[in-house]
Design a protein that fits this description.
The complex is a heterodimer. By secondary structure, chain A is mainly β. Helices cover 14% and strands 44% of the residues of chain A. Chain A is built from 1 helix and 16 strands. The longest helix of chain A is centred in the N-terminal third of the chain and has 28 residues, at 2-29. Chain B has 3 domains: 2-295, no CATH class; 315-447, no CATH class; 492-631, no CATH class. Chain B is 66% helix and 3% strand. In chain B, strands 1-2-4-3 form a 4-stranded mixed beta sheet. At the A-B interface, helix 1 and strand 6 of A face helix 18, helix 19 and helix 22 of B.
């Protein structure tokens, strides 16, 4: 009797295994709406419409109405995992780690499927807190476009691609930078800021 | 019948080789797939024949593993002979490899012709080997057709290791540790045992190295299937289920471990470990010999595998009572959970104890939570659930079979080592696929399925493994994918450089970017500044010198560690260096593994200041190609 249940359980697991493997294979071979280029001084998400989204540490700022500092305008160390995959385990996640003396910034981009990239950015900086101080990170698009702002998200459509940035927490606000090319994610400043958001990309010509 | 198949196949191959010899001369062999394949098979299976025919032992066992020592022994003898005779190693070593091929044929003939007179079973042996290699051939076909591009090298390890037999062959150097022969080894991780075998396959007959490395990768699963089959036969006693076990074991791509994907020291240690594991009741002296053998192949993985053998001898062999076995399983399971939780909480040997090593490398070598759990999970994919099911069932039942005890112990010990996270922790998962399959095949057999369900299992299980293997392998290949879509460590521009340097050798130590150095060190036997392991400090000094070539930066470069006290150098101004300078791309300076595979950036113009300074230190600018310049 015990064997009977184990047999059924084994077959259920195997059927799950087959479904899981096939869906993983499909996701693996599926043409993606984007390509993450993590070899230059910034992280670039290349779209099939030849345009790109750029996230660069140099544009991060710690600011309020009176002051504005750029913690990573210069950097003392840059590490990227994109070309470290020869002997180290491949994770499928693109990682950029920037240091400027004792301050550091780590960004991880994990494609969840062919249309969504999960982004997590952690910064460790050391500024003295003053009123209304905020940490701002910037996301740039390579062309001027019309941004549409919703509660927790911003979206735009350009050259056959629909791009949507969605933040997952109320601590993070999305603001328009004002140049029709950039948006800014803003958090109240702390020694460690963690930004979590998803970038959704759908293109007609993928 | 099986004897006849083996003899006819061998005669057929020899006939083809004789025909090729008459048609194209001996040089035609250097890039002939059949010849290289035949060489790989004869060199890697000769010790099995020695064990069977000369030592009258088993094809797979401790003595066959020890028989691989014939290769280092030959090098020692040749080294002594060259000292007495005054001949060079390069003159003698080709005959050693030819001797090994002839010896293989003689022993093969002895196995078949003379065994039968004594009433032994060469027919049975050949049948077993043919049964064993069928799954290996299936994996080879899948890999060659669906995964690998023809003549691709996808492991930089081959390039690094080949510098050792190169030094033996071209420079008359014999060494116990690879670092004594070649400056490409920062740490002593192994003896040159493995390199003597690699030399027989690649260097001593001067085969096309790129093609040879490719053929090794393609045929290695066939070789590995022999000990695997004998091992599974020991535990299942069924030909079909043993073949399934071999197939599934070969279809596990262990990232970082590369069990049966590449022939490198750690996988060679695994191969011999599996041979030794096949032996019943190893004595203490057998264990000591096994330990020395495994450790000499790889100081870390060999030690771990030797530790497994001792663990089996001291603990597993002494477990008899069901209660003891249940407690044993429970302790193993809880220990794995404990170390996994400790890892998730942030503990890692690499972070807390090996900080000096990570400073040299320039970063941590392991992925961390949740990426490490993800990477670990991907080794077996959904099959992990069956492993856990088998573990729980066997624990509750107090399953006392050796296959269960050994496989659960080994999986647990591998997992503990992985979660302790020393540097390159993923290497400690070497062999985890074999143990997992060794656990689930007897577990499935125990459930006594009827024939229809057995047939279903024979279809479903390999399907799940094949898909996971394909995705894991393809993911791994992403590093070796060049911008033009070619998947190989060597670019076409590199080949041009190598062919130039083979005829026009620089006289001094060669400086370039680490990747180019590795290519020329391995394929053109050029002395470099530690190639891919050029130290971070030297990388920075080189970059600063190229950016600002003045006396101060030049002197700093000359005094740099990887220059190894050389007071002059020749510079290969590579496409990779050019791109780094042009785009300020400096990742390779900060991390020892940050290498750029592409060399397609044309060198349009070299900074005049650099050219001027190099000319003041008497470096002549030599045009090699659009992608390479040599200053010597």
């Amino acid at each position: 009797m015990k064997n009977f249940y184990l047999r059924i359980l084994l077959f259920i697991i195997l059927i799950f295994g087959v479904i899981f493997s096939i869906s993983k294979y499909k996701a693996f071979t599926e043409t993606k709406n984007f390509q993450i280029i993590n070899e230059r001084q910034s992280v670039i998400i290349q779209l099939p419409n030849t345009k790109y989204i750029e996230i660069t540490s140099r544009n991060d700022s710690v600011a309020n109405s009176q002051i504005s500092e750029r913690p990573f305008l210069t950097n003392t160390d840059v590490k990227k995992n994109s070309n470290l995959e020869s002997t180290l385990a491949s994770s499928g996640t693109s990682i950029e780690h920037i240091e400027n003396e004792k301050m550091n910034r780590n960004i991880q981009l994990t494609p969840l499927n062919s249309e969504v990239i999960q982004v997590e950015m952690t910064t460790n900086t050391s500024y003295r807190y003053v009123d209304n101080l905020a940490y701002k990170m910037q996301i740039d698009y390579s062309e001027k476009t019309d941004f549409h702002f919703d509660k927790n998200k911003v979206f735009f459509e350009n050259n056959g691609c629909y791009v949507e940035v969605t933040v997952n927490s109320d601590d993070t606000k999305i603001r328009d930078f004002g140049n029709e090319q950039s948006i800014v994610l803003v958090q109240k400043y702390s020694l460690q800021n963690i930004f979590r958001f998803n970038i959704g990309i759908k293109c007609n010509s993928k | 019948m099986f004897d006849s198949i083996a003899i006819i196949t061998n005669i057929g191959v020899i006939g083809y080789l004789i025909f090729t010899l008459f048609k194209g001369g001996p040089t035609a062999f250097s890039s002939d797939y059949i010849f290289i394949g035949y060489l790989v098979i004869t060199i890697l299976t000769l010790p099995m024949l020695i064990s069977k025919v000369i030592l009258k032992s088993r094809v797979v066992g401790l003595l066959s593993a020890l028989s691989y020592l014939i290769y280092p022994l030959q090098i020692v003898i040749i080294s002594l002979f060259t000292k007495i005779s005054g001949m060079s190693m390069g003159e003698i070593l080709p005959f050693v490899t030819i001797f090994n091929m002839l010896l293989w044929n003689i022993l093969f003939a002895f196995l078949i012709l003379f065994d039968e007179k004594r009433g032994d079973y060469s027919e049975v042996i050949i049948k077993n080997i043919l049964c064993a290699i069928i799954p290996g051939i299936i994996v080879t076909v899948i890999t060659a057709i669906f995964i690998r591009q023809k003549d691709s090298i996808v492991a930089l390890d081959y390039l690094q290791h080949s510098t050792v037999p190169n030094k033996m062959f071209f420079n008359n150097i014999t060494c116990l540790l690879p670092g004594q022969c070649s400056n490409l080894f920062l740490q002593h991780g192994y003896t040159t045992f493995y390199h003597t075998i690699l030399g027989n396959i690649t260097t001593f007959l001067q085969n096309d190295p790129i093609r040879t490395f490719y053929v090794i990768d393609i045929l290695y699963p066939v070789i590995a299937s022999i000990p695997l089959y004998y091992l599974f036969k020991k535990y299942t006693r069924s030909t079909l289920w043993s073949q399934l076990g071999v197939l599934l074991s070969l279809l596990v791509f262990v990232m970082g471990g590369y069990d049966f994907i590449f022939f490198i020291p750690q996988t060679f240690a695994l191969l011999l470990f599996l041979m030794i594991l096949k032996d019943r009741n190893l004595s203490i002296s057998g264990l000591i010999f096994s330990s020395i053998l495994l450790i000499s192949i790889h100081f870390v993985i060999g030690t771990m595998l030797a530790g497994f053998l001792w663990f089996k001898f001291l603990i597993i062999e002494n477990l008899n009572k069901k209660k003891e076995i249940r407690i044993f399983y429970l302790i193993l399971g809880l220990t794995v959970v404990f170390f996994a939780l400790a890892n998730i909480a942030g503990f890692s040997v690499e972070k807390f104890i090996q900080s000096d090593a990570t400073k040299v490398i320039g970063s941590l070598t392991n992925p961390y939570y949740p990426n490490n759990i993800k990477a670990f999970g991907e080794v077996l994919g959904p099959i992990w659930i069956i492993v856990i099911l088998a573990y729980i069932t066997n624990s509750i039942e107090g399953e006392s079979s050796k296959s269960s005890l050994i496989s659960i112990s080994f999986i647990a010990l591998c997992s503990i080592a992985y979660f302790l996270a020393p540097t390159y922790a993923n290497k400690f998962t070497t062999g985890i696929g074999v143990y997992a399959v060794m656990l689930i095949i007897p577990f499935i057999l125990k459930l006594r399925f009827n024939n229809i369900f057995k047939l279903l299992l024979l279809i479903i299980l390999p399907s799940v493994f094949i898909i996971n293997f394909y995705i894991q392998y393809k993911n791994y290949l992403s590093f070796y994918t060049q911008s033009n879509g070619t998947v190989s460590a060597i670019t076409k521009e590199d080949k041009e450089l190598v062919s130039y340097l083979k005829t026009e050798k620089p006289n001094k130590i060669v400086l370039s970017d680490p990747y180019t150095q590795l290519v020329v060190a391995s394929l053109a036997n050029i002395d470099t500044a530690q190639a891919q392991y050029m130290q971070l400090e030297t990388r920075e000094d080189l970059y600063k010198f190229l950016k600002n070539p003045i006396t101060r930066t030049h002197e700093a470069l000359l005094n740099s560690k990887s220059l190894l006290q050389n007071n002059d150098f020749d510079l290969i101004y590579s496409s990779r260096l050019h791109r780094s300078l042009k785009y300020d791309s400096t990742a390779w300076i900060n991390n020892i593994y940050s290498l750029d595979i592409n060399s397609d950036e044309k060198i349009d113009e070299i900074d005049n200041k650099l050219k001027g300074y190099l000319s003041t230190i008497s470096k002549k600018d030599i045009f090699i190609s659009d992608h390479y310049r040599l200053f010597k």
